[in-house]
Amino acid sequence: MSALAIIGGSGFTKLETLEIVRREVVHTPYGEPSAPLTHGIFNGHDVVFLPRHGTAHTIPPHKVNYRANIWALKHIGVDSIIGVAAVGGIGEDMAPGVIAVPDQIIDYTYGRDHTYFENDLSHVTHIDFTQPYTETLRQTLIKAAHTAKVKIVPHGVYGATQGPRLESAMEINRLEKDGCSLVGMTGMPEAALARELELDYACCAVVANWAAGRGDGPITMDEIEKHIGQGMAQVVSLIATFVGIASV
Ligand code: HPA
Prior knowledge:
By secondary structure, this protein is α/β, with parallel strands linked by helices. Helices cover 27% and strands 24% of the residues. Strands 1, 2, 3, 4, 5, 6, 7, 8, 9, 10 and 11 form an eleven-stranded mixed sheet that branches.
């Protein structure tokens, strides 16, 4: 099997039932990753786990050192990454509690270090990003969901916003007009950086709330945390099955 890493998002700072083998501190030319890389055995298979927001969930989305995280994983030999992320639901089929495996991205973030290709270049490089997620990895996740009997929506357009504030209702209307069905703050530049380093990458998104203006009243952290808690149990079961299938 290819070496697999899970990047955990909000509500997923550790991978339950991971048998931890060792923690590895990696220093990168781009600074420090969000946490030491945790090597472990998950459902009988080797995985590396990295909590995107830090071990104590203290790094907000716009402050995550995405370049260091992806570089560190590449450096230790990882070649596939599943990025787990909490998102808001925009599309009608993206109600709180839904797990989605998006197939497209629109990037609205700004001011983030979003590329490895900027200094000391021998030539200018433009990666292909027509399909921002690795389709084979997405399909394996979808297959794992069927096998594990975890209900998922096998598509979605992830609108990546800057945060850390949530969006206005009109911003969500605009995202919907653009074609977004999900909104989150960490999907980019993570996916593009993985592509720049030629790593396979797919996203497993847990809908934590109706996006701004789509539910009843304001979005509360209580609501977000409740749905993340419920959704993450499903994600753990999905990933447990995924590692089994991906290792064949
Ligand atoms: N917007 C952006 N990011 C999010 C949301 C949201 O509504 N919910 C969880 N992450």
